[in-house]
Amino acid sequence: MIPCQRHLFDIPEDVAYLNCAYMSPLMRPVIEVGNTALARKAHPWELTPDQFFTGAEEFRATAARLIDAPADCVAIVSSASYGIAIATHNLPVRKGQRVLVLDEQFPSNYYPWQRLAEDCGATLTIVAWPEDGDWTSAVLNALTDEVAIAAIPQVQWTSGGRLDLVRIGEACRKIGIALVLDLTQSLGALPFSVREVQPDFAVAANYKWLMGPYTTGLLYVAPQWHDGKPLEENWIQRANARDFASLILYTDDYDAGARRFDMGERSNFALLPAATRAMKQLLEWRVSEISETTGALNRTLSVAAEELGFSSPTEELRAPHYLCLRRKSGIPAELPDILARQKVFVSVRGSSVRVTPHTYNSTTDTERLISCLRQIADH
Ligand SMILES: Cc1ncc(COP(=O)(O)O)c(C=O)c1O
Question: Candidates 155, 182, 347: which one to mutate for ligand 1, based on the most atoms within 8 Å of Cβ?
């Protein structure tokens, strides 16, 4: 268990921020690194050609450690949608085949597949919401030899339901189905290993559980796709990019591994160092410990909320860091006002309250949430 790390964050005493799935706060050391990095462009004459590469490679190597993959397999992207677009650009789908997504899947991992299916004469198959909350079995049952691609998350974002990607990856390989993962709501908070799951592509935006700035992201590309087509044809992906004097000696060769998929201006002097610093902190804490720590807070919360008429998926079926509390009679309209008055920040969506704590939270925060829920319990 990680002791409360609130001192590393600029969170006022009277704020209970339990909404990491919306956006994590930046840590003080991350802001320091980011400010210094942004200020470097005040003196562009001090920026050397070498620095177009060193920061990017440090980001790549750090991201690789988080997903248990070689750095060569990581591309630097701006968003989850950018990474998914690279997957749709490269994976073959034939007429009559199926592309699998989950019910209520996040739009960035839905629309691109809807478009691909439409363009290829394939069918988009939506795995129905399982009544027993078991997303893993629901996906396993839907993996038939008609399926070309399964594009799924590790955590279903509207329920917190966890998918066993090791079992799903194994089943995909047996049938020959390409596996594409959106890890935005899990990477950094739930252990994940490319070596165990063996996906074809896996993307994560950095601004939630990777605790980095907005508009940074990482994409894992399996070695069998390293000869694929990037979304952009930019100069820095090419094999001769390090020699600034020879850039117009055009070459057909790309830089090694997944680097050809890097977005334009990926050197991103202002944001990448901050994103890297945040990932290093997660590695220091260890993802398994983050999962345990946030899981313990959510466990206490789910027990207290149950007494107030809220239900949540059982611990076997949900991700520890991601608790969605539902109430049969719905959420009274005054709850958002009560929460706002008490400065308790969670996401209220439809009939559910989503609680996603991190290492800056303590039971003081969760007790404040329970006290708000108690106020509506009689409605
Ligand atoms: C599951 C999931 N994927 C991706 C994103 C962000 O997508 P993008 O980086 O394309 O904006 C979110 C944001 O809420 C999300 O919940």
Answer: 182
Contact 363, 301 (CB under 8 A): no
Residue 232 DSSP class: S
Q: What is the C-alpha separation between 301 and 218, in angstroms, rounded?
A: 32
157 ligand 1 Cβ < 6 A: yes
For the CA of 155, the nearest atom of ligand 1:
1
DSSP letters for 96-137: T-EEEEETT--GGGTHHHHHHHHHHT-EEEEEPPPTT--HHH
State which ligand 1 atom lies nearest to the alpha carbon of 217. 9
pTM of the entire structure? 0.97
**pLDDT tens digit string along 90-102?**
999 999 999 999 9
**Matching residue, tokens 């991700």:** 319
| Cβ neighbours of 60 (radius 10 Å) | 24
Question: For residues 297 and 118, what is the distance between their CA atoms, to the nearest angstrom?
Answer: 44
Whether residue 276 contacts residue 59, with contact meaning beta carbons closer than 8 Å, is answered with: yes
Report pLDDT digits (tens) over 111-164: 999 999 999 999 999 999 999 999 999 999 999 999 999 999 999 999 999 999
CA distances from 328 to 132, 227, 310, 311, 378 (A): 16, 51, 8, 8, 13
Burial group, residue 42, by CB count within 10 angstroms (0-12, 13-18, 19+): exposed
